[in-house]
Amino acid sequence: MRLLHTSDWHLGRSFHRVGLLEAQAAFLDHLVATVHAHRVDAVLVSGDVYDRAVPPLPAVELFDTALHRLAEAGVPTVMISGNHDSARRLGVGAGLIERAGIHLRTDPAGIGTPVVLTDAHGDIALYGLPYLEPALVREQLGAPKGGHEAVLAAAMDRVRADLAARPAGTRSVVLAHAFVAGGAPSDSERDITVGGVAAVPAGVFDGVDYVALGHLHGSQTLTPRVRYSGSPLAYSFSEADHRKTMWLVDLGPSGPDGAITGAERLDCPVPRPLARIRGRLDDLLADPALAPHEQSWVEATLTDPARPAEPMARLAERFPHTLNLVFDPERTEDGPGASYAQRLRDRSDQQIAEDFVAHVRGGEGLDGPERTVLYGAFDDVRVDSAEREVGR
């Protein structure tokens, strides 16, 4: 059986105020064409279909069109909700839509009930694990404690229990939306840290033939059986070096080394390349080596000691698609001239809060119990936001 693994469409998202709906439509055209050209047997979409819980109408229309085209192609599609999606909204009509071969998995209660497909080698059970907010699903899944690892482990216990009751040789695929240890994040993913911990070990998914992951926007292989497809489009300049692809995965018969017989990356259309350039303004405007970036979406970091006049207008004369301008004067980041943004760069909300406490205490940081209370407060805010979304 041939599977096409994709995720993180983020329909409705823009890129630095540039609308991406046309580029997203072009990707979905490419997806359907790939299904036909490569004789795909099933499409896997591992969450973050939309960019926000209440997506704009054009994004909903684009999604609706994509579902119709996949259904018309007669190719089963298994899709889960991600942390950007409203699980309840995405799952509306799931029972009816399933009759057309579109299997939406947005309810944690259905984790142990797979979509079962069949090929010449027997059955393949595909389990959809929607994004699991620990505080909201812990009791439902019977997890012994909170945190992503505990709830995913409890979910996988249900998967393995169902799989054990199936005929010998049944192959298994899991779709999940999570931050798995070993994956490389980018700036465009929403933080899902709980209790100060975001990543879960890949070993949580032991016992299945293939794990189709979503959430991280870079395509990557954690193990031969555990892979991120990444997003089909770049959603931040931190993804400038990404190669945007989907995974084409072939499953053969079950064997001691698993059922995967091949995995190939298929490139996605690139609406416009990204470029990050850095230097003094006059140098950037004159450097011939930057000619290939003149039609790219550009993020320019200016290192001039003093801010030059009209920098964006001057950059746009050579780089008309400059979208982001950063100032990083040539001085040490720890010096008195360092900006607030520079001091906070690459620091989580929890780290920033800890630094603030230490600052107001004259350098005395948090002890263990205080850190637990602080992280619990962040978790409560996250859960409150999620519960309000569920109640809409």
From TrEMBL:
Span of domain Calcineurin-like phosphoesterase: 1-218
UniProt keyword annotations, A-Z: DNA recombination, DNA replication, Endonuclease, Exonuclease, Hydrolase, Nuclease
Alphabetical GO biological process terms: DNA recombination; DNA replication
UniProt xrefs under Gene3D superfamilies: 3.60.21.10
Single GO MF descriptor: endonuclease activity
Pfam families linked to this entry: Metallophos, SbcD_C
Domain Nuclease SbcCD subunit D C-terminal: 271-359
CDD domains: MPP_Mre11_N
InterPro entries noted in UniProt: Calcineurin-like_PHP, DNA_Repair-Maintenance_Comp, Metallo-depent_PP-like, Mre11_N, SbcD, SbcD_C
Summary of the function given for this chain in its UniProt record: SbcCD cleaves DNA hairpin structures. These structures can inhibit DNA replication and are intermediates in certain DNA recombination reactions. The complex acts as a 3'->5' double strand exonuclease that can open hairpins. It also has a 5' single-strand endonuclease activity.
Assembly description: Heterodimer of SbcC and SbcD.
Record-stated family: Belongs to the SbcD family.
Protein known as: Nuclease SbcCD subunit D
Organism encoding this protein: Streptomyces gardneri
GN (gene name): sbcD
